């Protein structure tokens, strides 16, 4: 018994459609990889991820023992982690420069205004009142930041003052997560 040619075409069409329906739901990995490659919010692969143990003082990394799943080891691990917690504290205080002359065309013209000097004095007095163990004061090379640092330095005792050009205003590296408005600053070396 022969099958009519129209019926054969219908069978071939339904077979192709059924095969495509079976294949499509199982092809998700391919689509996701393409989405990740072309995503605007996916960070570049050459950038490292955030290091939660940046100061190497996290209790989990202070011990050199392997942890297993039984209850006694969980308790001993908890005791060790409490014992291994460091007592050292870091006080990192970020202070922006005081109000400055925005009419100045160059950095040397953008000095602190009288209000900016008063703001720096108030910041210095407040830091003195906190009585924290200050050891280092780092400021940028901008004129207004240098002025602010000199005023604050008068209120702090035994503080080493350093200058760092990396702290100047601007975006020296691409932000993470990336944004599409970032453009690197142009620097010419001679």
UniProtKB/TrEMBL annotation:
<dbReference type="InterPro" id="IPR013078">
    <property type="entry name" value="His_Pase_superF_clade-1"/>
</dbReference>
<protein>
    <recommendedName>
        <fullName>Serine/threonine-protein phosphatase PGAM5, mitochondrial</fullName>
        <ecNumber>3.1.3.16</ecNumber>
    </recommendedName>
</protein>
<dbReference type="GO" id="GO:0005741">
    <property type="term" value="C:mitochondrial outer membrane"/>
</dbReference>
<comment type="function">
    <text>Displays phosphatase activity for serine/threonine residues, and dephosphorylates and activates Pk92B kinase. Has apparently no phosphoglycerate mutase activity.</text>
</comment>
<keyword id="KW-0496">Mitochondrion</keyword>
<dbReference type="GO" id="GO:0004722">
    <property type="term" value="F:protein serine/threonine phosphatase activity"/>
</dbReference>
<dbReference type="GO" id="GO:0090141">
    <property type="term" value="P:positive regulation of mitochondrial fission"/>
</dbReference>
<keyword id="KW-0378">Hydrolase</keyword>
<dbReference type="InterPro" id="IPR051021">
    <property type="entry name" value="Mito_Ser/Thr_phosphatase"/>
</dbReference>
<comment type="subunit">
    <text>Interacts with Pk92B/ASK1.</text>
</comment>
<keyword id="KW-0472">Membrane</keyword>
<feature type="binding site">
    <location>
        <position position="144"/>
    </location>
    <ligand>
        <name>substrate</name>
    </ligand>
</feature>
<dbReference type="Pfam" id="PF00300">
    <property type="entry name" value="His_Phos_1"/>
</dbReference>
<keyword id="KW-1000">Mitochondrion outer membrane</keyword>
<comment type="similarity">
    <text>Belongs to the phosphoglycerate mutase family. BPG-dependent PGAM subfamily.</text>
</comment>
<feature type="binding site">
    <location>
        <begin position="96"/>
        <end position="101"/>
    </location>
    <ligand>
        <name>substrate</name>
    </ligand>
</feature>
<dbReference type="InterPro" id="IPR029033">
    <property type="entry name" value="His_PPase_superfam"/>
</dbReference>
